[in-house]
Fold each of these.
Amino acid sequence: MAKIVFVDDEPDMLGTVKNVFTELGHEVYTAEDGKEGLRLILENEPDLSFVDVRLGGLKGMEVLRQVKAQKPNLKIIIFTGFNDTQIDEDAIKYGAVMCLHKPVGLQDLINIIEKYTGK
Amino acid sequence: MGAVFCAYTGLLNAVTSFALVAFIALKKQKTLLDKRFLFFAFSVGYWGLSYYFWLSANQADSALFFIRNAMAGAIFIPSAFMHLVLSLIEAPWKSRKIVVVGNYFISTIFLLFCFSPLYITRVEPRLFFPFWPIPGILFHFMLLHFSANIIWAHVLMWNAIKQTSGLKQNQIKYVFIGTLIGFVGGCTNYLLWYGIPIPPVLNFLVTIYIATLAYAIIKFRLMDVNVAITRTTIFVLLYAVVIGVPLAIIAWGKSWLSYHWGERWWYFPLGFYAVLSAIGPFIYLILQRKAEAVLLKEQKAYQQTLLQASRGMTLIKDLNRLLKLIVHILTKTIRITHARIFLWDNGAKNYVCKAVRGDHHKVGDDVMDENAALIQQLHTDKEPLMLEEIRSHGLVSDIVIGEMEKIDAAVVVPSFVQNRLIGFVVLGNKKSNGLYTESDLDILTTLANQAALAIENCIFLTEFEHQQAHFFQAAKMADLGTMASGIGHQVNNRFNVIKLGAESALMVELRKLAKCLDSNDTEVSKKMVAALSDTCQRIAKNAEHGGEIVKRLLDFSRLAQGFKVMDVKEAIESSVRLWECKHDLREIGFQMEVASDLKRINGNFSEVEEILFNLLDNAADAIKMKEEAVQLGNLAKSADYQKGAIWLNAKNADLNGKPYVLISVRENGIGMDDETQKKIFVPFFTMKATAIKGTGLGLYIIRRMVDAHQGRIKIESEYGKGTTFDIYLPSAEEN
């Protein structure tokens, strides 16, 4: 059982992942915009966070940087629907553990969560 | 004195004739008429020369000898002349042969007896001539032969004039008139033979006659005979005055003048002469112009029309319309049977008839190969070809003549643009059967060359429009390219939800449901069913959204369909929908207002979409640039700082009294200073720094497209505050 935070501007996406991972026995928090997401992460200190690059208000990369500035131990994965390799580079540069490209399969997510949280 | 004068007229006749003989003999290509004329002129020359020697003779013997020689020449003159006339009027070969052979036979018989007293018995003084011949028996027959032929030749020519037209008729007229003059002059010789005491004063007219005949036969493009007569008459009358008046003064005023001026009396007539001969040429020109204005009134009228038409031709942009106009003008103004235009077809590599007007059943071939003899001839001459002319003068091969007949051409006028024969105009005969004069052909050449320019213009414009259409389409596709990542992101998001939803249904809910069915746990199964419904709904919704995005993209990338009456509102909507895919509207405020009574415009739907898309795109970029500038500290944040926003407004408007549709795109982005405003429409000029990728062609494209729609662009901008673009497109509907 891991503590996971999802930050994405697509509510459908959040709804789906919340359902699935709660069913699988994890503790899931979701936020739709960057500011809210940042607050959730800093407050709850999740084992793994998934942050989409494109967010309203505070952007995904900004969230990543601020989290890393304040709580560098927290693991963040950057999510994106873009094909831009620049995002991959920036994500690693700012301290994300990896960059995920949408669409992503459920099994992949499960594997990733296991890999980085051991749960 | 009188005898000497007459002798010299004979010499003059001889010199003129022999000179012409030499001229024709030296011509490289002799026509049939040239050859006939040679023998005739030679006969006349021989007669003239002997005539001179006869009248200059000091003794009876030599006088007799020379007059017999002169008559030897004179014997062949009627035969040679008849031969010439029969060729001229193109009499049928059979009858020609009989007459010609018969004539020469008779002449030969006369010649045999020429030096015998049967012909000329002796010489004796008559009037002021020391040695005038007395006719023998045979002489009377010769004179009969002579007269019969001359009279008969004239009758034939008169008939021919009535039956022919154009060039031939003109030519025969010259010969007829010349002959009349000449033989009248020459016949004054015979008077004294029969004791009529009139000296051969008009002998010199024979010279004029020979010259006229030579002109009619040799000259390639004869002046219209009426014009020639008019000009000659004016000339003769005028110079009769110029020379006659001073002479008259000398003759009759001498005593009176000597009385008043003494020694220097001759200053007066000299003065007159000087003045008259100075103003003579000018008066000649004035009189000639006036006479020809009347004589050639009709011709001048249509020539004016043709000139005016040629000037207006370059204004026409549609090729077919231009060609139709040209053939119409030609047939109507010159009143010809038909006119056709052949243009070079670069695809088929030959000349194709592109326009025709007139009597269709006579039209002939429609295609001419580039290697045809006629085309080569046009390239060589670079001048109009007249069928009648080239037929009669034999300067051009028979193949060319054949080809001209095949396309039923009386005249072919080439059209050159910088040494390229881009086409030619085929003209039929004039309905009046008149001939094509030199000035006609000049005007036609001018018209053809103007037409060539106008035609090239049209072709160029058509190609240019094609290219422009391609260019616009390419620009639009390039813009769509920049959308790719934005659209990709959107679509990926949809798929993400669909995929995760389906997989979660499979891995979690369905599995649990299966377990519930086994264990009969209704509560959990109900929960699972509910969850599954949610998931499925989500999947369906996102699939639909995905489809929407694709549709917007496809709508926008439709191929341009040319100019039609269209609804601006539709274009706005499709552009905005697609644009929204690219830019995050949470970041940028967007307000759109389209008037419900928005008029329709005549436009290219695809291009209008592109204009709108570009404007919105630029607006979004301008806002981003402002944010960047503020962040970087380059721009002070003003007191009334607002979030970046775009307003799109479409309504009917008036510009210079005409109805337009006004599309306004306003943003409060970075704005432009005056310097920048001047440069923005230059291609590849871009204000976008940093990561915003673009081609820099946006506003250049907008400008070109708006021009193509005959619209206007107005800009209002202030650096740091924002920009408003106003696009005016002419409305297709009247008020």
Amino acid sequence: MTLHRRDFLKIAGAGLAASLLAKPAFSATRSKPHVVVVGAGFGGATCAKYLRLWDPNIQVTLIEPNDKFYSCPMSNWVIGGLRNMDDLTKSYEHLPGYGIKMVKDTAIGVDADWRVVTTRRGKKIAYDRLVLAPGIEFMTDLVEGYAEGEAAGKVLHAWKAGPQTLALRKQLEAMPDGGVFVIASPPPPGRCVSGPYERASLVAHYFKQHKPRSKIIMLDGHIDVVSKGPMFKAAWKQFYPGMIEHRPNNQVVKVDHKTMVVTSEFEDVKADVINIVPKQRAGDICAQAGVRADSAGVWCPVNGATFESPTVPFVHVLGDSVATNMPKSAHVSNNQAKICAAALVELFNGREPDPYPVIGSTSYSATSDHTAGPIAVVMRHDPEKGTYVRQPGGGASPEGDEINFEYNKAWFEHIWADTLG
Amino acid sequence: MNMKRREAVVAAILWLATGVAGAAGPAPTCLISGKEKPASVCAAHTKTISATCFICHGPNGKSVAAIPGLAGQDKDYLVTAMREFRDGKRESTVMQKYALGYTDSEYEAIAAFFAAIK
């Protein structure tokens, strides 16, 4: 381990010097490099799996506190009654078959000098490279009364799939006909920009069948329906006329769960069911590692070719936690994970990582129980600009349809299989 | 076979088998984004741009649902399809948006990758 680490520091210190590229990639005495991945979501699980597939010499430990995986994609389908929790609950059972060591625990500390991760149960795990894919955490203190309302079970985000997904579904089922469902979304950037609009659509689909006098009020921190706008607006008009009120530029600042009043910068709204998605930032472990280092201290800057932090060597970040112009989506997280895994394979073997990786981003949203539509864009890394550049030709479909509803279902199956299967 | 030649053959086999340059001879190069790079860079590029497709089309391009599979498809068929998507000659939902974001040489590399999967 010591020899290898010294070897490795030399590689890192010298960057990608030609002398090292000429270094034999095989060595009988070379020990196996160890990558620790934190978080088994679309970023972390994909990275762990592809590291093992692409270089079985790399040892991979995956730290994840949950027994099961709850998919955010499809969670709006559960909230709208199209699917149930079992459909979006996936097992981690296949990952150990790739040679990934699963550790059921929570990473709580990182010593980036000694390259050691500490877990809640007191384990210390040494790494050669650390990949942080913890997902988001909520800045609940920005909404007065949020924490109390959440503790009382009256204010839900349902923006991480799991118990809150089911809780929101049950509250909507218990709501009387003629009730008001308030869904509030934060200003950008945050996880899944089109998610609130899909959620409004599918809850409207449920109301239309079972509670047709009910209303949905969207208090939206965005300036408009910013993702797939024409598609959602057309669907709301066609399928749910008069049911969804979209109020843009309307950020929530306060909630009182006792009176069930949501207060935005402009108005008070009385609600029967309250769904507030607070502003988000990279998971806490990123702060512990010192990589939650953008100007606001909210997201994690990375080198786009390797997803390594520019300030903390050997620490990489994937998924929603990354400071980026890419959408914060499952599709992007999975793609980033493969680029990071491929880069690590090259680095561990003394070769230059691809400076020009390409990320494709597709996201489907359902507008009813039989229609959906995609948005797609290709982004190419430009090492001179230090960012990914959107290629011309990307965009959203102007309306949802039945074929894309089938493709949406296929996308679920395939991204789950690619990440966890 | 003398020692030197044997080494060169071993290096070539290693290269073919693993994509890793052996010690003997100059490392092969390739052209990517107008820059000359070690061939391993292009190999890694092809690997990740192909693996991108797995998300919609299934791991290794093996579909179990409505989105068509890519594994084992004829290479020329896949390249032609990408060109037709790009030029709007073939109807698509997202594929034109993707085709416009990749180059002709990337079409070739991706098509070769999936054609080789049985």
